[in-house]
Design goal:
The complex is a heterodimer of chains A (224) and B (158). Chain A is of the alpha+beta class. Helix content of chain A is 28%, strand content 38%. The chains are: A alpha+beta (224), B mainly alpha (158).
């Protein structure tokens, strides 16, 4: 008897919610993520930002000399090509004191990435760091406090209640991410850092990435 | 995962994920955000799934996570536009409309459990795994949801 009523309820429920559909506009939006599709990274892509950055910075300098010789006002910045997980971006490079930096939005991953390099007195360039704004976030609800990052979810509730702070790591998209979460008053705060292994290798392989050298160009047309 | 595979997953699971999202959100606009984020995660995942059941569970799991995330951010969203609230489905019978309304009036924490159990036909154990809850918690929510549905629908809910 119990099974019968439960089955009747289930059939009623299914008949009802079968009539709930995603709208056509939502369907189109989800299907046509064209930008994302075009910039999809290869699953086995390596982190090559460092090599690309260095290559373009060298060329950006030569553009600057060209415009200075024509008497034009110097441009706000320069485009340079950045290769990030096998996707190429043309982004402006900006100077900040002795270092240059730039931010790109890796649309395939949805992460904003800042690449920072420094210039030495001898003209040498050095990668300082690569920082990625994290897709990870905290969920605070009646379910407790969870760290969510795509398909990754970690229940932090008990550890935070006990210690007021918790740290650990997880794997996502082929990278190791380290997190630290702590309570500030009644609300949690957190920090997640992606560990990019192999950056040194990418940097040392710079000379092999010669295809970048034709791409540097100014972001704005100089005044005549 | 190539474009064809992605579009096949969209065609196959869009309604399912929309219903999961709708059962975990306060309005259709939030549900649409959840759906888009869920399929964005699918695209970013890159690789195809080993089997269809794993794909379904993976997508539901991500959608549940996205709903959790939305609950947090919605605390700060004071403004909900009227048209977002009014985009409700139209049903073929009054009884279905009443059931839908009764389910929508359930606390959010009960709705997804009810949906996964009754519509997707997942067992209590499977719902617990998908929702990251204990089986006891799932059973408790189901029991309370049944009581509320019975109170609201009277004879229509057995």
């Amino acid at each position: 008897m119990e099974m019968n009523t439960e089955n009747q309820n289930r059939a009623f429920f299914q008949d009802t919610f079968c009539e709930v559909h995603a709208s056509k506009s939502l369907s189109e939006r989800v299907k046509n993520m064209e930008k994302l599709k075009k910039k999809k990274p290869a699953a086995t892509a390596k982190w090559l930002a460092a090599a690309a950055t260095m290559a373009v910075v060298l060329l950006a300098g030569s553009n600057g000399i060209t415009y200075a010789m024509t008497g034009s006002t110097w441009v706000e910045g320069m485009l340079y090509r950045l290769r990030l997980k096998d996707v190429t971006y043309e982004v402006p490079l900006q100077q900040e004191e002795t270092s240059y930096y730039s931010e790109v939005i890796n649309e395939a991953d949805g992460d904003a990435t800042r690449v920072r390099i420094s210039t030495g007195g001898d003209g040498s360039l050095k990668l300082v760091d690569i920082m990625t704004e994290q897709s990870a976030h905290l969920s605070v609800s009646e379910e407790g406090i969870w760290l969510l990052d795509g398909e990754v979810d970690i229940d932090l509730t008990a550890a935070l209640e006990e210690n007021g702070e918790v740290a650990g790591s997880y794997e996502r998209n082929g990278y190791t991410k380290e997190y630290r979460v702590w309570m500030k008053g009644e609300f949690p705060e957190f920090q997640v850092v992606t560990l990019y292994e192999g950056m040194d290798d990418a940097w040392n392989d710079f000379d092999k990435e010669t295809d970048w050298k034709e791409s540097a160009m100014p972001t704005t047309i100089p005044e005549q | 995962m190539n474009t064809e595979e992605y579009e096949r997953y969209v065609a196959q699971y869009l309604d399912c994920i929309y219903r999961v999202a709708f059962s975990g959100c306060r309005n259709s606009a939030d549900a649409e955000d959840v759906v888009q984020n869920t399929f964005l995660h699918l695209w970013k995942r890159g690789e195809a799934f080993a089997d269809e059941e794993y794909a379904r569970k993976w997508l539901i799991r991500v959608a549940v996570n996205e709903c959790h995330s939305l609950w947090r951010t919605s605390w700060m969203r004071r403004t909900v536009y009227l048209e977002e609230l009014s985009a409700e489905p139209v049903f073929s019978t009054p009884e279905k409309s009443e059931l839908y309304d009764a389910v929508r009036k359930l606390p959010v924490r009960y709705r997804q459990v009810v949906y996964l159990y009754y519509f997707e036909e997942y067992s209590v154990k499977e719902v617990a795994a998908l929702m990251r809850l204990s089986e006891t918690a799932v059973q408790t929510r189901l029991q309370r949801a049944r009581q509320k549905l019975k109170e609201a629908l009277k004879e229509a809910w057995k």
